[in-house]
Amino acid sequence: MKSIKKYFYLLIVVVLLQACQDLDEINENPNYVNQTHPQLLLTQVASSAFQVQGTSPLYASRMLIQTGEENDYQYFKWGNGSYNTYNDLRQVTIMIEEAQRIGSSNYEAIGKFFRAHYFYKLSLMFGDIPYTDALGGESGSFQPRYDSQEEVFAGIITELDEAASLINEETTIDGDIIYGGDPSRWLRLINSFELKVLLTLSGKERVGEINTAAKFNEVYTRGPLISSLSENGQLVFVDQQDSRYTEFNSSSYGSSMFMSATFIDLLQELADPRLFIIAEQTPGAASEGKPINDPESYNGGDPTANYSLINETLVADGNISKVNARYYTDPTTEPHNILSYWELEFILAEAAVRGWINSDAPMHYENGIRANFEFYRNYAEPYSDFLSEDFVEQYTNQEQVVLPTGDQGLSIEYIITQKYLSSFLQGGWTQYYDYLRTGYPDFAFPSGATPPTRFVYPNDEYNNNTTNLEEAINNQFNGNDGIRELPWWLK
């Protein structure tokens, strides 16, 4: 009898142990994968990072105007920005961790590039941001401290150096929708992007312990760099769900969105055929049957004027141009670039003018113009006749286009102007930051307003990270979180 009881008790223990084991297995979510190959994450991260950044920077940069309502970006009245980019950075963090888990230096390098790309965007939007302690939510750090903007930029430059050193050019990168698995082209993008970051700081002699000009020359000499359109850091769109051009089927283009006179007038002054590729003829000119390559058949509205007045005059009279319909009717119209060959050439031209590198500024400047014309020739085929090599030759030889020498300020004005003309729905906020940095091209201001230099910190940050945020605002702006406060990079 005792042996039976002993057996019975033993059976209960076994059942209980088994039940605990079963409960543990039940609590494990079979749909949650705590490990994955970074190639799957790379596809998702790249698809998000390379998307068109929308029309907000085009309003701020005097390329578009709105006639249906008062647009905050057009009238320099924007307020709070968003920290949604940190959600993208969480995916990048996981990709880097998974790359380290499987020992893949290429995925780790690309992850560091995307970290640099996103933190660069965030810091230019706000100033000081969480950087060192950011993305630590899973380890319990929900209230990260803020790093100074100088510390963030020093970290970005260091991470790009590390990314370049990690690239293994002998190992193909699976899941790569940008360069088809070619690590050598990622290396060119990483190095070229570092030059972009450094030139953004043209007003700063040093970034922490880094000499800005010397570092630029070091990276330029180190190379390799983007050297052709085939090496653009670009996403090519395809006519499939979730892979089409970002502005495809956007209803806003067809209603009350029109071209700004700032942009149109500049194209007309330079007899620039990109006018025909970017804008539509005015309805009046189209109804009269004027040829689309007639510059006078295009017109823009004053970005500082009252929107309803523009609507009652230019719009009512059919004397204002819309955005070219290809941007919202063609699902694959043109690739979107994080960094293109033409932008890099303009960066190198400016660096040469500033004496940061020993190179031929006019050569780089003309390379940039020619590359942008070629890009449109490749992707805007109905207009390719207006972009022939003969016409490009004629365009680049114009007195108002040839890069002047001997006057650094004037040379930089020419370079930034051409960079601006090449950036429609390509540059994101780059052209606006170039304007803040250089003053070119000349932007008209609304009455009583000056161009904002940053965004106000997100409301959620006021609620969830109050102490650290207030310390950052006090350190930078004496407690005033305003859109016209000067961040470190502009001081």
UniProtKB/TrEMBL annotation:
PROSITE patterns: PROKAR_LIPOPROTEIN
Pfam families (UniProt xref): SusD-like_2
Superkingdom of source: Bacteria
Organism classification: Bacteria, Pseudomonadati, Bacteroidota, Flavobacteriia, Flavobacteriales
Name of the protein in question: SusD/RagB family nutrient-binding outer membrane lipoprotein
Gene3D superfamilies cross-referenced by the UniProt entry: 1.25.40.390
Species assigned in the record: Salegentibacter salinarum
InterPro entries: SusD-like_2, TPR-like_helical_dom_sf
